[in-house]
């Protein structure tokens, strides 16, 4: 069974930190730092998605503009034409969009309204949790049924050697 975007949003929530098109770039950078996030959607005056700013976008603007960066606003540097997703999209499809667009953040839209944000970290976390859960289920199946050829052993000697201080 393939996981979908709504599985991530159910765990992390649908609250999305946003900035406005006319917010100063230094204020956007402060928002990223304050909320410990790597990217933020930019919304227009109607609250609709206009673009996205990531740490990489800010560094690129700093490299190109130097001190002048303090005079720029979000609209001046934001990425446009970014990939988006819906809550029903598969995680695999979203990961492919991220790979092909070289982006680490994908806004989630429902009927044109911003309802979430999925990061590559969210996808990795969900995939790791799913893999761990599947491994545990397989181990429980093998060791808890008549199909097991060898029962798990308890090695007291190995436990004594593994001392954590």
TrEMBL record:
Check the record and name the Gene3D superfamilies matching this protein: CBS-domain
The record's PROSITE patterns line, in alphabetical order, gives: CBS
Pfam families per record: CBS (PF00571)
Task: Tell me where on the tree of life, at the top rank, the source sits.
Answer: Bacteria
InterPro entries in UniProt: CBS_dom (IPR000644), CBS_dom_sf (IPR046342), CBSX3_CBS_dom (IPR044725), Diverse_CBS-Domain (IPR051257)
Keyword Cytoplasm listed: no
* CBS domain span: 10-69, 78-135
Q: Which UniProt keywords apply?
A: CBS domain
Q: Which organism is it from?
A: Acetobacter fallax
Q: What is this protein called?
A: CBS domain-containing protein
